[in-house]
Write a structure and sequence with these properties.
Strands 1, 4, 5, 6, 7, 8, 9, 12 and 15 form a nine-stranded mixed beta sheet that branches. A three-stranded mixed beta sheet has the order 11-10-16, covered by helices on one side. It has a two-stranded antiparallel sheet with strand order 2-3. It is built from nine helices and 16 strands. Strand 5, helix 5 and strand 6 form a beta-alpha-beta unit. Helices cover about 30% and strands about 20% of the residues. About 45% of the residues are buried. The protein has about 325 residues and is of the alpha/beta class. The protein starts with a strand and ends with a helix. It binds zinc ion. Zinc ion binds next to loops.
Length: about 325
Amino acid sequence: MLNVFLTIDTEIWPHAKGWPVKALPINKSSFTEEIAADIYGTTTQGDFGLPFQTQLLKEHGLKANYFVEPLFSEKAGASNLTDIVNLIQNQGHEVQLHLHTEWLSELNDPEIPAQFKEFIHQFSLDEQIALIKKGIHNLHASGVQNIHAFRAGSYGANLDTLHALLKNDIFYDTSYNPCYLEKNCDIRTNKLLLQPAEIDEIWEFPISYFQDYPGHRRHAQLCACSFYELKTALLDAWKAGWFSFVIVLHSFELIKNRGTSQLPLPDKISIERFRLLCNFLSTNQDKFHTALFSEIDAQVIPKEQPISPLQSRFFHTAWRLAEQGLGKLI
Ligand SMILES: [Zn+2]
């Protein structure tokens, strides 16, 4: 049985030009439009955000890990975070911690750094410990009882981040993205991780990827892969006896044209991929189990890494390129 971790980064981005380098206007107190688009996925043709996703997953008997960014609530209002947490938990899914340190210049808390940096790895170990503690505090205050896992905003973690998680009693991290190493992600390991690895008492669950053409890695993100690429990678990982497969998407990944003066539009290609993925996972529950971080028994995670990465098939990648071309037209 392959553990498929559906991980959904849940966050808002202010509709303000130049943010976060340029601070938000002093008089900006409402984030209604951002929350409608980025969390609820409100479009001209219906809502395709969290309510839609959580319901569709539930109908298919699937579970997801929502990595919720909680710093925004200090600026946008704590009740917004509580609403998000309730929505996720009431549908049987799980809330985990995601942090975007871009928010820091907007907050006013002497316990955490006052200036934003793009990645959490740019902060000292003590600062990272304080930042993660702050995120946990906000999630607890909004109704999350236990937090088991973390993902850094933009995958921007390093080994200090793992240490900071340990200090905060979080034992699973999924910030390691092989497609972003030496860019955003600064978790340095002796060899490339394809499967979970124990690093300084933390289990690191790498984002899954496949090689789509020689020398190029494509991570398992809904908007970045065709359904057939994802399906093949899942089946290949299952056939190879892998322990886990981590898929990424966002709260706003099923809509497009966010942050403009008009209402966003549904992203029909991503919605169809999401439906196909749910259907595939639901009809193949003899092979795939949508796993939650709270359910993992660390004792049974294999310690060895696979030798070879997953590979896509040429015609599936060609299909994605055709889909992307089509997506520009509709
Ligand atoms: Zn994020």
